[in-house]
Amino acid sequence: MNEIDEVAALRAKANAGDASAQVNLGFMYRDGGGVPQDYTQAAEWYRQAADQGVAAAQYDLGVNYANGEGVPQDD
């Protein structure tokens, strides 16, 4: 499986509500790994995983808000 197929498979899981896939997509968008770097997309995937109680996503979403990355800055 190539990188494009791996991202597509991860996105399918994330869209189906898989919290682990959602937070991993958030990491990928934050870092630009396998996808173009996009803090707005990262924040959206973090939010979906955070709403399911994933602590790493909750933390990283908070960092996005603290730094104003993809969301309005809010200390």
Terminal Cα span: 41 Å
Q: Could you tell me the strand content as a percent range?
A: under 5%
Helix proportion range: 55-70%
Approximate shape: globular
Sheet with most strands: none
Could you tell me the radius of gyration in angstroms? 12 Å
Uncertain ranges? none
Estimated structural class: mainly alpha
Give me a quick take on this structure.
This protein has 75 residues and is an all-alpha fold. It has 4 helices and no strands.
Task: Outline the secondary-structure elements.
Blueprint: H1 3-15, H2 19-31, H3 39-50, H4 55-67
Structure description:
Helix 1 (3-15) packs across helix 2 (19-31), helix 2 (19-31) packs antiparallel against helix 3 (39-50) and helix 3 (39-50) runs antiparallel to helix 4. It contains 4 helices and no strands. By secondary structure, it is an all-alpha fold. The chain starts with a helix and ends in an 8-residue tail after the last helix.
Brief descriptors of the model:
mainly alpha; about 70% helix; single chain; about 80 residues; globular
